[in-house]
Amino acid sequence: MSTPLPPPGAPLLYPEASLQTLGTTNGAPLTGQPQKTKTSKMYDRMKVWKAIAVNFVVITLLTGIVFVYTLVGGIIINALEDDAARTECERFSQQVVDQGFNAAQLAWLAGHDIPYTYEGSSTEWDLLGGQFFAMTLVTTIGYGHTSAITTAARVFIVFYSFVGILLAGYCLITIGKHMFRLVGNCLLLFLDIFLSIDFGEGTATVMRNKIGPLFEEVDEDGTGTLDLLEVRHILWKLDDNHNEDNKPDWETVCKVATEGDQDRSGDIDKEEFPQVVKEFAKILAAKKEEEQNSVLIFKVLVLVAWVCAGAAFYADVCDCIGNYGIAAYFTFITLTTIGTGDYSPCSDGCRIFWFFHTAWGLGMMTVVISVVATHIVKFVNTAKGQKLELSPWYTHHVRLDTMKKGARKIQLPLRVLRSVIIIMVYVVIGAAIFKAFEYDLEQDDLQTLQADIASQGFTASQLEWVNSQFSFDTNWDFSGAMRYSFEVITTIGYGAYAPQSSGAQAFVVVYAIGGLGVLGLQLGTLGEAVVMATALIFDLVGLITGKAKFSSKLDRRMLDCLDKVLDNFEDLKSGYKEIPTAELRRRVLALPDCDVNEDALDKVLELVDKGLGKTTNGSIDPRNASIVLARLYREVYVRLKFRELLGSMLAFAILYGISIPIYDAMEDWNAGEAAWFLYITFSTIGLGDYTPSTTGGEIYLYFYVLASIGLLSVFIVSLVVTVGDLVGKLRKGKAKKGTEPKGSNAKVGPYDYPSLSSMGPMPSPATPYQPTVYQSSFPSSGAMPSFPVAQPLGYQPAPSYFSPYTVPYSWY
Fold this sequence. Notes:
Elements: E1 24-25, E2 28-29, H1 38-99, H2 103-111, H3 127-138, H4 151-194, H5 203-218, E3 225-226, H6 228-238, H7 250-260, E4 268-269, H8 273-291, H9 293-317, H10 324-335, H11 348-383, H12 392-401, H13 408-454, H14 460-468, H15 478-489, H16 502-545, H17 553-567, H18 569-574, E5 579-580, H19 581-588, H20 598-612, E6 619-620, H21 622-666, H22 671-682, H23 695-736
Antiparallel strand pairs: 1-2, 3-4, 5-6
Helix pairs in contact: 1-3, 1-4, 1-11, 3-11, 4-11, 5-6, 5-8, 6-7, 7-8, 7-21, 9-10, 9-11, 10-16, 11-16, 13-15, 13-16, 16-21, 16-23, 17-21, 20-21, 21-22, 21-23
Transmembrane segments: 51-77, 125-143, 155-176, 296-315, 321-340, 352-377, 416-437, 506-523, 645-663, 699-727
Membrane topology: Multi-pass membrane protein
GO molecular function, one term: calcium ion binding
């Protein structure tokens, strides 16, 4: 009988019912795992077949969505551009005729890719050509082999690509995850059928088997319900690798607890807890997928195989791409969305294959980059003696605790400066290497081209026209090489010029991989700078209008305070059989050294009242109180992200509005052309029809791109949180519709009551109130300042130690 082994693809199994991964710990079978019978093995195979079918259906549906969206977009762009493109083509062809070239000269022009020399009125805007162009827009590849020339098409492309990037981004990333799971499931099935290697229970199944004993162990009072601390303890115990340093963060606990409290009762009972475990199993499985070295190796190998297979097809079928080395370079440039445009599929068959290979490969590339980034962050934090912590508030507390008070205001700008220096140093290194590869080769090619033109016997007018079709500028001097290096690591890839030597093309692959890692590690700091800027904008609006509701300071303080209250909830719970709502309000309002006005305090009271609701005796059970705090935590967190979403949009509008007149003044463009260039750059599509030609324009480009990438990152993260919360509320609303309990014995939750503000004074606590001093539970090199329980309303605290603008970010 074979011993269960952990094949590399095991953590990627994805049956919906069990979220399967290997039921082993460090490669060894689970203790007491029974030997499987033929029936159980057949059942396991059926689950794997089901997982394969589910993955295949999801991939097919999402690919179909992207296909239809790009097809419709291609048809519309085709309709807007075709007539203008034909007119331009005919005008160009007429110029060729007017020059009176002889047959040999025409053949020479055709050999140097002068367009429309013989084709007359043919254009790129047929059905497949339009869809191909639309796909390069929504994936931000933007080869730049063609571009829109009409104003109507450009306006449509701005709105179409903005929506398409978000839609395609979600679809392609999901496709990538399911592609890896599909391959992993197929691999496990192969190992089981042909090599008799068994696989164990899924993550959720293993966890469910542990629920009963853990539930009884924690539920000492025998009530059959759990509060948030008990939920956190059980979730911590369910992780086989649990220790004192990896307890689930409150963001995760609050999320799974609010998902599990389906009857809105304010506690978690035995019937609801399996749902909590299921939600936690998803998070834990995703975390293991990102952190396990075997998973990383498996995904990298699958991606490399995908790139090699695509390159083999392009080299064999697509004559316009060339040999296998060039095809591999083109495939990598495509899947990283750099899209320099020096090579692109030209036949219909190649473009059809390109669509599916790119749609599926882009998602896998994104997933691999995310997993690699997680490992890099883990390695860096380990080297610094810190644990890997994905909670956005952990980094913030450690950062504040290790800083002197006087340095907090300048700490973020200094880190932003450090990030910019790191990025630019990497760009300079790449520029030096690219210049060494390409500069001499470019000079030789320019001299050869000039000599070749001189030998064709062109007349003076013909020579002037021919020279206008070529660029004799030096692209690979140091400044040009710097811009190309910057285009590579930001994946803009205008395509105005690209390396021609095999050595430089091979170096692009290595340099781009490193550059994406460098840029990714600095995105967190750039994102913090953006959040700080947006917070300043809202605070300025609040200062001008005199309305505190525009300020986000209070939301950040509320979230910080709730974090501390939850960490110290055991102390609060132990003092009361039932917690007076007035006491809970005081705990939530215990903002450390908080300096707020009455309007802001009213806003906090409104939030707390909404979370607590009304109780018959002015008190609340500790279990209910903890879940209420969890809901309040999620509400404040989501609203903070929504504010960041609006702030990033407003900040980009300001940046965009400032940049248009700058480029209008520095370049020979009008305002419309400058706006088009700035959008194509911001979205990293990089068609290359417009590029800066002045020194000032190139210098400003670096600032604009770094600022816009930071804005785009904040926008996407905030959008995902906001939309995810909205979708979750809609699903809960549909699930609860028509299922509310009726009758006098109905179980009513805290949200089913009017606000506390309508109840009048709160009764006195059941036990004498003793203020408790809390300490931060976050590890740090220095102790966080302690803070007392808040005083009665009207108390004016001292200025805040909590920096209202330094909001942490966790990107991976």
